[in-house]
Amino acid sequence: MHVTMVKKEFADGSTCQKCVQAEEQLRRRGLWEKVDRVVLAREIDPTSEGMRLAAEHGVTLAPFFLVESEGSLRVYTSVLKLINEVWPAGPSAPTEAPQGSVLSASDVQALQAQLAGSEPMGIVRTALERFGRDCAIAFSGAEDVALIDMAQKSGLPFRVVTLDTGRLHAETYRFLDRVRTHFGIELEVFFPDAVRVEELVRKKGLFSFYNDGHEECCRIRKVGPLARALDGRRSWMTGQRRDQSPTRVDVPIIQQDLGRAGPDGPLIKWNPLAEWSQAEVWQYIRDNQVPYNALHDAGYISIGCEPCTRPPRPGEHERAGRWWWEESTQRECGLHVRK
User: Can you give the pTM of this predicted structure?
Assistant: First the structure.
């Protein structure tokens, strides 16, 4: 087998960030030595070998890998897919977390004290070392995609779940697809129960939440699908921060999610960004060239369903644009149970 990696070089001589990250992942897993050749697709030179290979194979993403084996040639634009399909049992290939990864209430309390003041990257690594793909990253916004970036850089196994309520902005759907392709990951998308949605709309119309509150609609379109997404798992991870709104000032770094039962008792819920500010999240996004929802450029901060989200006004906290017609202390959808 012969493996060629094609990396993009920009006009200023720098290498694309995704190429750097892909190499880091291979090195962390002890697989870098299995790459036989590295060639550059030079932005300023259309005749460079990497640009020629990109044109020959119809590839527009960098990096990409050419794997030649027994007379066949495969092209990979995802380093994770390359690892999983070509070297599934590589020297340091991540394995599932032990099925005995059980944390008691006292364990959680001790970890909360131990992790206080830690950088989110270290918290993400701790969670994935203990639970691996048994820890589902719940993805919807800027904070969550920063967590995905940290999880991928850890080199450990993880999974990402997201909810399609059927009422998202068009920009959000495009954002979900950009995240999927940027990281080369599978997004596990969960939808609401069609029968329950039909009953609600038939009985109350499409905008009942403006009259009788958002709880019923969110219960059907968000809470139910999340329950299915977490079914059988032991742990999950969110992008909640303490400074987001009055309803989140006491968010812990790690907690027992007493509202959700897993195989070993309450799910363990991780909030690695609890101590970070909005500014720190966006600094991370800029520094690491992480994709974000185009609606942020239009003034939106916290983004949910289209009928229930507007940009916050000057002086309002970032979640003020969610269910803005309701009392500010009630602006949660039910995904995060306060215990």
Answer: 0.71
Single-letter code of the amino acid located at 181? T
Q: What residue ranges in 43-195 does DSSP mark as E strands?
A: 64-69, 72-76, 135-138, 159-163, 187-190
Domains, in order of start, for the chain? 2-86 (3.40.30.10), 105-330 (3.40.50.620)
Residue 135: name the closest of 170, 161, 112 by CA: 161
Which helix (DSSP H) or strand (DSSP E) does residue 71 occupy? none
> Please, are residues 135 and 267 in contact by the beta-carbon 8 Å criterion?
no
Q: Could you read off the pLDDT of 160-193 as tens digits, one per residue?
A: 999 999 999 999 999 999 998 888 888 999 999 9
Distance, in Å, from the CA atom of 170 to the CA atom of 289, rounded to the nearest integer, reads 22
What is the spatial distance between Cα 156 and Cα 160, in angstroms, rounded to a whole number?
13
Q: Which residues are catalytic?
A: 333
Q: What is the pLDDT of residues 49-100, one digit of tens each?
A: 999 999 999 999 899 999 999 889 999 998 888 988 888 754 444 444 444 4
Separation CA 267–CA 99 (nearest Å): 14
Strands 187-190 and 254-262: unpaired
Amino acid at 193: D
